[in-house]
Amino acid sequence: MRLMSTARVPDGALLGRDVRTGLAEHAPLLRAGTAITPVYRNALIRQGINAVYIDDELSAGIEVPDVLTERTRNEAESALQRAYDDIPSALGNGETVSDKAIGDLKQIAHLIARDIAASGDAVLALTDLAGADAYTLQHSIDVTVLGLVLGRRVLNLYGWPNYRGRRVFTGIDERLTSLGVGLLLHDIGKLVVPSPVLQKQGPLDADEWELMRQHPVAGVELLPGHTVSALAKSIVRSHHERWDGSGYPDGRAGSKIAQFARIASVADVYDAVTSARPYRAAAPAHVGYRVIVEGAGTAFDPEVVAAFRKLVAPYPAGTEVELADGSRGIVAALPSDAPDRPTVRITHGPDGTPADPADVPFADLPPIAGAVEYPAAAA
Ligand SMILES: [Fe+2]
After folding, report:
1. 172-188 as b/e, with b when 16 or more CB fall inside 10 Å?
2. What's the Cα-to-Cα distance from 160 to each of 121, 165, 170, 173, 271, rounded to whole Å?
3. Could you point out which of 2, 7, 99, 118 has its C-alpha 20 to 30 Å from the C-alpha of 53?
4. How far, in Å, CA of 129 to CA of 7, rounded?
5. Radius of gyration of the chain (CA)
6. In the chain, what are the domain boundaries?
7. 10-residue stretch averages of pLDDT, the chain, 379 residues long
């Protein structure tokens, strides 16, 4: 399987995965195994889906693991939609999200954590192919997956700080459920931000920015006191804090920021950079990767970034890459302990002519110059 620019997919090519438009109640736009026709290609482009996975001879044997089962993803989206639908009636009269909706979310966090545990140490492939319209739901779920994968690794490696600041390694599973709930709800306060501000194309002015900065505190106020744990609330409140103290709303720094919020901020930023927004296309995975790695010790907790580097690939399996000598290929495999050292299936030589496909291990490759990007095609 490999990722290919929608505009370049030839007629008759077979989709490797379902293409979804991000709304749980809608069937996938196209199912895995569908042969692409000009009508389908145009429909994908109109939906803002700039790249799709296809199965072809050149990519035979390349596997792109999906952490969540289709079923978990669907259930997570509907539960989250129900929680969000719950809010408008609660807003304005000081009420909070219902206990029923919170109960649903706990179950979803549990399901996602179970899928992640079952997928073992697979390197994450989180390339987001959704159009910008589905952003909030899809984003919350992808952030939850990445945050839980990171959280599991961070807690197993470093433990969690108890009230005396000692590192403790017990009760990790229960804490991860709280992490999942907090991650699912992290941006719920955006419901209080007027949608013209949320969807504005271009930079916010000072007043708009002030409104946007209220969403972490507004989010906590929407949550019931007794059913959402303090751990989960710490994520909602503090996911925009930064390690060096430059974040908001409290300007906390270092270990004064709740550990789960430090994990959530890495997941949130990575996903924001690599997702399509109303005003810009998604950046490729290696750009998101660089933002996180370069932010270690300034924006982000170095321990969380160390875990990130073991779990997230700058060039996920199935991605087309360009090498420094001008040749091209497809990422064929990733070592589970070093996801930044891919094996690449060379498909084109330095002069651009097709080469006999051969899988070359990282140690024998010229440096990787970058990923082939998937710019939006005109519909
Ligand atoms: Fe946020």
Report:
1. eeebbbbbbbbbbbbbb
2. 21, 9, 9, 12, 24
3. 118
4. 14
5. 21
6. 2-64+317-371, 70-311
7. 89 88 64 92 84 90 82 81 73 76 87 83 58 61 90 91 89 89 90 83 89 93 89 96 97 96 96 78 85 97 95 90 94 89 95 93 93 64
Give the Å distances, CA to CA, from 83 to 14, 79, 222. Answer: 36, 6, 11
Alpha-carbon distance 237 to 217, whole Å?
6
Query: What is the CA(149)–ligand 1 centre distance, in A?
Result: 19
Paired strand residues for 343: 333
Which residues face 19 on adjacent strands? 30
Q: Which CATH number fits domain 2-64+317-371: 3.40.109.40, 3.40.50.300, 3.30.930.10, 3.90.105.10?
A: 3.90.105.10
Is domain 70-311 classified as CATH 1.10.3210.10?
yes
Q: Which residue is it, tokens 């996975």?
A: 53
User: Separation of 339 CA from ligand 1 center, angstroms?
Assistant: 28
Nearest to 215 by CA among 196, 190, 197: 190
